[in-house]
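In the previous chapter we treated chains in isolation. Here, by contrast, the input contains two separate entities that must be folded as one system, with a combined length of 633 residues.
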Amino acid sequence: MQQEKEGAAYLAHPERHSLASVTDKIVSIVQDANRRGGWLLGFGLAFALLMLLFASIAWLLFAGIGIWGVNIPVAWGFAIINFVWWIGIGHAGTLISAILLLFRQSWRTSINRFAEAMTLFAVACAAIFPLLHLGRPYLFYWLVPYPNTMNLWPQFRSPLMFDFFAVSTYGIVSLLFWYVGLLPDLASLRDRARSLRMRRVYGVMSLGWRNSARHWQHYQTIYLIMAGLAAPLVVSVHTIVSFDFAVAIVPGWHSTIFPPYFVAGAIYSGFAMVLCLLIPVRSVYGLKDFITDRHIDVMARVMLATGIFLAYGYLFESFTAFYSGDTQEISMQLDRMTGPYAPIYWILLVCNILIPQLLWWKSLRSSSIAVWLLAMVINVGMWLERFIIVVTSLHRTQLPAQTGFYMPTFWDWSTFIGTIGLFLSLLYLFMRYLPIIAVSELREMVAHSKESPP
Amino acid sequence: MTPGRELYGIMMAFDGADQAREAAQKLHQEGFRALDAFTPYPVEDMPEALGLKKSWLPKAIFCGGLLGGLSGYALQYWASAYAYPLVIGGRPLNSIPVFIPITFETTVLAAALTATFGMLIANRLPRLNHPVFNVPEFERASVDRFFVCVRADDPRFDYEHLRSLMNQLPHEGIHDVRI
């Protein structure tokens, strides 16, 4: 197949690798005891932050959401900012694994597993926020349409209801896609497990996968179809997230550019997060032969392109506000640019639009440290973007008496930082117990590179 | 044959995908139908060599998705127009455009669930024990070995004949698979 042959070009030193050596390399990351020290340190730090999250949630359930800085008029604070930020980060994972698979972009092979895991964990972090924000989080199941004694049904015309369906579907489909993709690799881990206990654990998890041609045939069929399902799903999820805003008549939110602009932003921040995580991981685990400088370069280009989409979004958001002649829209835009939150607005433009233009230089894209730093800048910038969208539209309503100021409290920050702990803890566990690169796909790539040396 | 342990089939091992595919093709030409191959990655044209039928899953997934979409819409229609009608801003009870997002989500969800569980059903998984695992070398099927197996329930199965046939093909070993 053409795409695999091309894919071989994305392996550094294909001559060094055989089917057995790539399997050994990836499986040994899970089995190698020598690296446990660093892992334990990282996991410990992440776990401490996870405990901070639990403490914050416990205090929230006890005291109520008054512990956050939200109030009228800014009733949507960190919870929605973080929800949109996290769910956006998840999108690159599905994009890499599904859309690039459909487009026959074989460079996805070395990074898709990791990116999919990132998606799952980011969705888990995202889902926490709207639930906590409900005020009565223990009643979240009222969103589920089930026949209840109150004869009450959810309001299906509300984007918040769309959100519930979109995020839960996204979470479930990502999990299925990830798990189906893992099956052959779990079988590899089972076959190479050193202890009977691990052999049993991986044996059960791999569901008895035995690499039969029949298995592969059905597997390949559904893997492609699921990629086809996941691709429009990504677009739909962030489109629906943008409806949360766009359906309102609040100035600054009521904008038709929101769906594509949100999707572009999601892919942008998602690629930034993938790069942030992969660059350290590949050097710690010595995976530079598989996750090559070329991968980093290609991902940086995707980031550059989506960054430009996003710049178009910013431009048109402002342009439409002024062009509409709507005084409230105009005053909101001016307030965003010159009001109390203006420094954040300008910093976000510098982070998301100005600094990433450095990626035009090839020498910069080939330096992994520079790309890592840029990705960090973009992660911060994208978070600030969500802050600006949520807060500036709300803090100054059209009645001067209702103008307020939103300031996050300690508990806002602790919940946010806590979810980073949740994300990293899950990621550390993933790296410790599951293969971080799709081994069966890597074997396929190596086999094809032997048939036709690039 | 070891007494007491029934024969499941005979398995050949290969170093490369091409030999495995050629052997599968040859055995299929000889009329064997209870054939299977075990490979570390999906080998191109292997299903054709083994004479496997096309997967029925795409049709099932289509039906699953259709059913999911219809029931998603039906749920919203029924709940909003009959069970709990609310007129807000003069919108019709059956608000077709706003019912689309949830309909789309339930379509994708049902299709994905059909795909995953359909694949497990089609592959008869989970099944943690299987006679092929009794071949000691078999664990290399997930590393760098390719296997082709003829099951004993094939109507043309004749132990001596099959073994001599297999011996004529290039291979890395022939194993009896026992239950």
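Chain A touches chain B through 63 residues (CB under 8 Å). Residues 362 and 370 of chain A are 11 Å apart (CA to CA). Compare these points with the single-chain example from earlier in the chapter.
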